[in-house]
Write a structure and sequence with these properties.
single chain; mainly alpha; Four Helix Bundle (Hemerythrin (Met), subunit A); 5 helices
Length: 131
């Protein structure tokens, strides 16, 4: 019996529709969840624990979404000529995806803010390539 696995991709055509905005929104969501988690009281009631679990889930989902969106730009949009014009792009993408993973593992506002800054830098480079 052959098992069929579903494969997900941004686009196999390629469609040419790329945008860093989903990664930026996901990074902002990570920061917001970290801030909300830090606002919770230490002695939590059940309803607060439920909210805490939901915030952690949303934070982790959006950190993963951010990583996926950045990697789509990296693997499908950016080309060799972009690396020539922006020699730090490879290192920036690598560090940004690592920040996504760090934000999944911890609740650290500074790391969440670093993620936003890194994704914004990628978005800025993306916009410059469109000119």
């Amino acid at each position: 019996m052959k098992l069929v696995k579903t494969a997900y991709a941004h686009c196999d055509i390629p469609c040419g529709i790329y945008d860093p905005k989903p990664a930026q929104i996901a990074a902002a969501t990570v920061l917001k969840m970290v801030q909300k988690l830090k606002e919770l009281p230490e002695n939590c009631e059940l309803i607060t624990v439920n909210s805490q679990v939901r915030m952690v889930m949303v934070k982790e989902e959006h950190a993963e979404l951010c990583k996926r969106e950045v990697l789509i730009l990296w693997t499908d949009y950016f080309k060799e000529e972009h690396l020539e014009k922006f020699p730090n792009l490879h290192d920036l993408v690598w560090k940004t995806t690592k920040l996504c993973s760090e934000n999944k593992r911890m609740v650290d506002e500074a790391k969440a803010e670093e993620l936003i800054e890194a994704v914004d830098k990628i978005a800025d480079i993306f916009e410059q390539t469109k000119k």
